Amino acid sequence: MHEILGPDLPSFSRNEMQKLQRSGLDFIGVNHYTSYYVKDCMFSACEPGKGSSRTEGFALSSPQINGFSIGQPTELDWLYVHPEGMEKIVTYIKNRYNNTPMFITENGLGTIEKPNSKSEDMINDVERVEYLSSYLDSLATAIMKGANVRGYFVWSLLDNFEWTYGYNIRFGLHHVDYATLNRTRRFSALWYKHFIDQHSNKACHHHHHDS
Q1: Angle CA(181)–CA(179)–CA(132) in degrees, nearest 5?
Q2: Which range is least confidently modeled, 43-47, 71-75, 175-179?
Q3: Which residues contact 171 (CB under 8 A, 6 or more apart)?
Q4: From CA 169, how far away is CA 136, in angstroms rounded?
Q5: What is the CB neighbour count within 10 angstroms for residue 3?
Q6: How do 28-31 and 102-106 pair as beta strands?
Q7: Helix (H, G, I), strand (E, B) or coil at 94
Q8: What tens digit of pLDDT does each residue of 99-123 get?
């Protein structure tokens, strides 16, 4: 990384370096939503595009290659459904950082609510359930292969103000009517509750059995 970014990296004093080396990391937080194909631009000729500049790391990224998409497109132009990416990123971090404990700090699917949407369309978010189910399945595979993952957080509990998108994009397991602030459980909230119930029972059973 230093070879690529050089002077753009912050500098640390000797005292700060000693602290970093002594304490190490408590855990690594991973925000993961989607995957892209990546092309090296340091030793290969690259057309201009996302990621190809020096400050971005000389790695051109794209969701398509030779006409093939990396996954199912969604309503968000940057988010493609590629569940295998979850196992790959967690496994990479496991191997690269000596299996430091990990938390999946964000994972979820955003949708765009159309004007005049019917209330049942706002609530019946089958595509979010399919997304979460497939990504959690991929995460479980990584854990079964030894990744030290301590926790997982869905983004998000409620529809909210999303950085550059404002209120246009909704990630919530619960729908929020911004005019009244009424909150309504989506299908995904019921599904996720059931998912946790199922797996916490298994975890309790194993713990009891082991002791």
Answers
A1: 55
A2: 43-47
A3: 108, 109, 110, 111, 155, 156, 159, 160, 162
A4: 22
A5: 6
A6: parallel
A7: helix
A8: 999 999 999 999 998 888 888 888 9
Among 33, 37, 30, 136, which residue's Cα sits nearest to residue 81? 33
The total number of residues shown for the chain amounts to 211
| Close Cβ partners of 78 (under 8 Å, ≥ 6 residues apart) | 34, 63
Distances (CA, A) of 208 to 149, 151, 184, 195, 204: 21, 20, 36, 20, 6
Bond before 156 cis per omega within 30 degrees: yes
Query: SS in 3 state form for 137-185?
Result: HHHHHHHHCCCCEEEECCCCCECCCEHHHECCEECCCEEEECCCCEEEE
What band does 8 get if pLDDT is binned at 50, 70 and 90?
confident
- For residue 62, what are its two tokens? 């794209």
Paired tokens of 197: 């119930």
- The tokens describing 74, both together, are 């969604």
Residues annotated as catalytic are 106
How many helices (H) and strands (E) are present in the chain, helices listed first? 6, 13
pLDDT digits (tens, 9 = 90+) for 114-157: 888 888 888 999 999 999 999 999 999 999 999 999 999 999 99
First to last CA, the chain: 46
Q: Specify whether the CB–CB gap between 159 and 152 falls below 8 A.
A: no
| Partner residues linked to 175 by β-bridges | 184
